[in-house]
Amino acid sequence: MRPITIDKDDRVVPAPRPRKSKRKSGPSRSFFGGGKKKKTASGKAEPRFSTGAAFSRLGGMTVEITDRISAPFRTEKPKRGGRRKPAPAWRKPTLICGAVLLAAVIIGGVTNFMVRTEVLDRSAAWIDEQQQALAEFFGLTVQEISVIGRDKTSGDDILKVLNVKRGDSILGVDPEAARERLETLGWVETASVMRRYPDEIFIEIRERRPYARWQIDGRTGVIDRTGAVVSKKDEASFRYLPKVVGPNANEHAAELFDMLAQTPELFTRVQNAVRIRDRRWDLEFDNGVKVLLPEKGALQAWKQLNKLQDEQKILDKDVVAIDMRAEDRMYVRLNADAAKSRRVAGNDT
């Protein structure tokens, strides 16, 4: 099959003519053809088209087609132009700063508008009103407040810090916030708050145990073992407790009383323990005798005092104060009458 060639103007390019070969003469010629010459209707050979041949032009691309595609399709990539001029270095920071400044102006304007028009307050009030209306419609309002574990804590104080009254929406009660407010009360050590739908607030508290009385700046209150103030009133029902006096005495009371409890009989006679410069203690007994304990070695001094009391009843004599701060000796101060009689007796001898 003869191929067809198409130029760029969609014209068929004629195929080159084949060269004519010289005819053979002699016996061979007569043997094959009888010596007669074939004539053609025209002197020129016309191109022949096969039934399966076609051609087409796509864009600037010329394709030569025969019964088979003799050349693959080729696409030409567009030529790129010249190199782009780079943007100035100041353009990007300027755009960023401008965008930030615009956002700040918009936010400031909106905030100022909301503050001046009280939009937030009005919206919050409206939401509360709708919530209350829905709670009343569905019966979700507080009708009962149950408290267990309360002994010395005032019921009025609980209701005051709880800030909930009958008829309030139970959905508006925050149990965690209510628990934190309850634990600010002096007697309450721990608390838990739950909502029991549809209409009950359930509270469970654990109260602190009174441990001692603490006097500071002329006022006396009740503290627990950790030193936390459970009551700012010096109630008569707690007068049996020992009293510590002075700044930070509440924080060291448990340490002192654990030491004194090693000699229970002598400990029961201690009325007050005065904290001196937040370093040591002065003990005041029920008969008015004062014992000055050292800063270091207070336990050994306390045991020595207990031994003197057992053997000599030193606290029951005419003693005003016993100074045990020295390591190798002890100083005893007598009352005025005993000191005078001793001086007279010394003069007589």
Task: Produce the secondary structure layout.
Layout: E1 5-6, E2 12-13, H1 27-33, E3 57-58, E4 61-62, H2 91-117, H3 119-138, E5 144-148, H4 155-162, H5 175-182, E6 188-196, E7 200-207, E8 212-216, E9 219-223, E10 229-231, E11 243-245, H6 249-260, H7 264-267, E12 270-276, E13 280-285, E14 290-292, H8 298-312, E15 319-323, E16 331-334, H9 336-348
Parallel strand pairs: 5-7, 8-11, 11-12, 14-15
Antiparallel strand pairs: 1-2, 3-4, 6-7, 8-9, 9-10, 12-13, 13-14, 15-16
Structure notes:
Strand 9 and strand 10 (229-231) form a beta hairpin. Helix content is 33%, strand content 20%. With 349 residues, the protein is of the alpha/beta class. Among the domains are: 127-207, membrane protein fhac (Ubiquitin-like (UB roll)), CATH 3.10.20; 224-348, Rossmann fold (3-Layer(aba) Sandwich). The chain has helices at 27-33, 91-117, 119-138, 155-162, 175-182, 249-260, 264-267, 298-312, 336-348, and strands at 5-6, 12-13, 57-58, 61-62, 144-148, 188-196, 200-207, 212-216, 219-223, 229-231, 243-245, 270-276, 280-285, 290-292, 319-323, 331-334. It has a nine-stranded mixed β-sheet. Strands 5-7-6 form a three-stranded mixed β-sheet. The protein contains nine helices and 16 strands. Residues 1-12 have a biased composition (Basic and acidic residues). Belongs to the FtsQ/DivIB family. FtsQ subfamily. This is Cell division protein FtsQ.
